[in-house]
Amino acid sequence: MNMKIPISHIATIILLLTASLGNLAAQHVKTGIDVLEENGFEQVRGKRIGLVTNPTGVDRYLNSTVDVLFNAPDVELVALFGPEHGVRGNAHAGEHVAGQAVDSRTGVPIFSLYGKSRMPSASQLEGLDAIVYDIQDIGCRSYTYISTMGNVMKVAAMEDVEMIILDRPNPLGGLRVEGPGVDDSLISFVGQYNIPYVYGLTCGELAMLLNEEGMLKVTGSRGQDSTVRCRLTVVRMEGWTRSMSWDDTGLMWVPTSPHIPTPEAAYFYPATGILGELGCLSTGIGYTLPFGMIACEGMDADLLASRMNALYLPGLLFRPVYATPFYGSLKGKETGGVQIYITDFKTARLSEIQFYAVQVIAGIRPEFNPFNVPAQRLEMFDKVTGSKAVRMEFSKRLRYEDIFHLWNDFAEKFQKMSQKYYLYGIN
What is the Cα 12 distance to its own chain's centre? Predict the structure, then answer.
């Protein structure tokens, strides 16, 4: 039978085919779990394994790594370990995760790494041949997953259990390195290693660096510190390059935490996250723009946006925004500020934005002092920044130029040093 297809339908079919071909031609990255599946689970075959993961641990079809490894042939998944937010993502930021539970889907026991203890015990690793790590990070030191990764590496080293990292993209790319290291006095779970605030490595590359540069330190029974080194295997990605943003990967985004629901929020986290610790400014937490805005009470948003744009910060634009947060430190208060737009991801210097914003706000309102807050907020600001000197110098005049070298010199040295751990090229 001869059927005539309406012209409008033909146009629709052509558009759909074009879109499909475009998707096929686009760069699609295979993460570590994808590569592991394709090679027949070579690195874990015949092994009893534990798995450190959360909802971001998925393959390219959004199948949970928990389920993939549980159903993998000749692989015995016997333990799950949950970081902040839990294995299935049912805990809020900073909320302690229950010490032990059972995964309702697989029946595998779950041990918390974000409760009374933030390290697995020797008994929890007993009988394991390897412990696998599969978590999507966001490339920023204060995000706690890399601290969990390092803690697990320490115990794996002490118990002679192989550590296997299923590598994933750094959403901030592999070329962006910003911020100071961490003073010894400020080592904490939001700054556990002396690396820049934005460190420019994948979790697999970072694991190699921590392992080889003596950053995995443990305290002995007599209080003395020593360095350990684990048996480390990194299952490399395929198709990822250092110059990629998340949009370039072809991968779907799974929220890495409640306030990072999109890759854009991951881009903005280093732009406002430090400032958010002070509690006197809204960074969009409690509103609809998590980490994507900077606002305060009584501010003329149009004036602030005009002056921020007058700085001509590379790759950035600012739009005036008025907002009343639904929750958080400024809940129910009318604020004026700017929404951040990234126009050129490669040239934007993300972590500097928050300091320039304070500088401009202080220029509009000379009485403004973001550091006139409770001591515990200043302490957290220092821990996340990694350096007391940054706050001490910046607070004198509230001008970014006064901390420029504090913010950039260490990062430049670290980037040169870390290149020997690169697993992926630039193009």
Answer: 39
- Name the token pair of 342: 């990234």
State how far the Cα of 372 lies from the Cα of 278, in Å rounded to an integer.
9
The burial of 288, by beta-carbon neighbours within 10 Å (0-12 exposed, 13-18 middle, 19 or more buried), is given as: exposed
Residues forming beta bridges with residue 282, ordered by sequence position? 295
- In angstroms, the CA 392 to CA 171 distance is 31
CA 134 – CA 233 distance, rounded (Å):
13
Check: CB of residue 276 under 8 Å from CB of residue 291: yes
Nearest-angstrom CA–CA distance, 85 and 92: 6
Residue 360's CB is within 10 A of a number of other CB atoms, namely 23
Strand 48-53 versus strand 335-342 pairing type? unpaired
Q: Whole-angstrom Cα distance, residue 424 to residue 234? A: 12
DSSP-assigned letters across all residues of 281-337: SB-SBTBBSTTSEEEEET--HHHHHHHHHTT--TTEEEEEEEE--SSSTTTT--EEE
Q: What tens digit of pLDDT does each residue of 66-120 get?
A: 999 999 999 999 999 998 878 876 654 444 555 578 888 899 999 999 888 899 9
Cα(273)–Cα(348) distance, integer angstroms: 16
Mean pLDDT of 169-195: 97
Do 314 and 421 touch, CB atoms closer than 8 A? no
Tell me how far apart the alpha carbons of residues 228 and 250 are, in angstroms, rounded to a whole number: 37
DSSP state of 64: B
What is the arithmetic mean of pLDDT over 236-257?
96
Assigned token pair, 388: 């007391």
CA 201 – CA 113 distance, rounded (Å): 23
Interior angle at CA 127, CA 115 and CA 82, nearest 5: 25
For the whole model, what pTM was predicted? 0.90
Q: In what order do the strands lie in the sheet with 316-323?
A: 293-297, 335-342, 316-323
